[in-house]
Write a structure and sequence with these properties.
This protein is α+β, with helices and mostly antiparallel strands. Helices cover 19% and strands 28% of the residues. The protein contains five helices and eleven strands. The radius of gyration is 19 Å and the shape is globular. It starts with 15 loop residues before the first helix and ends with a helix. The mean pLDDT is 86.
Length: 183
């Protein structure tokens, strides 16, 4: 008689992101092909702005030269100061408010937009010092900003965004279109 044990194949535990956040996507932001952003929405309304896996910065093996939170002469997201329970003082962002500009070593510049309306709570200053975080861990340590929508608007966040399934359909259509174009 064999004494081999049957081992259950264990499925890995879900990550913190998979467990506590819902992923929403904005495809082709402001008409720029493939410039996709991801919003991770926590059940407490807090939203984390990240790059989607399909963004050209993450796809093409680019190296980041510079990340700039200074949007204009009078507006720098680094000057954002938030205080108190109601997060007073945080800059209010509209859906297409620029949050930062990322310049790659090939001089390609990408503007990252908020994609949702809300109060800017924090920008990730760690990616200014170590830009590889944005490339290696875009959903965790390499996030771009934290945004808090108004309570009454928190349910509306998903109205202008795509679910993961809908986003995958957009990406697969995009890939099919590229393959069907004549060389």
């Amino acid at each position: 008689m064999d004494c081999t044990e049957e081992k259950d194949i264990e499925t890995p535990a879900p990550s913190v992101i998979e467990r506590y956040f819902t992923r929403w996507y904005k495809a082709d932001v402001k008409g720029q092909a493939c410039e996709d952003h991801c919003i991770l929405q926590h059940s407490n309304r807090l939203c984390v702005l990240t790059l989607a896996e399909t963004h050209p910065i993450l796809q093409d093996g680019r190296t980041i030269k510079n990340i700039n939170y200074k949007i204009s002469n009078g507006c720098s997201r680094l000057n954002n100061k938030v205080a108190g329970k109601s997060k007073r003082g945080g800059q209010f962002l509209t859906e297409f408010a620029p949050v930062c500009r990322i310049t790659c070593t090939d001089e390609t510049e990408y503007t990252i937009y908020s994609c949702i309306r809300g109060r800017l709570l924090e920008v990730n200053e760690d990616i200014l010092v170590n830009s590889s975080l944005l490339l290696k861990k875009p959903s965790t340590d390499g996030y771009i900003a934290l945004i808090l929508p108004k309570f009454e608007e928190s349910k509306l966040v998903k109205e202008n965004l795509l679910s993961r399934e809908d986003f995958e359909v957009v990406v697969s259509k995009r890939a099919a279109d590229v393959q069907s174009q004549p060389s």
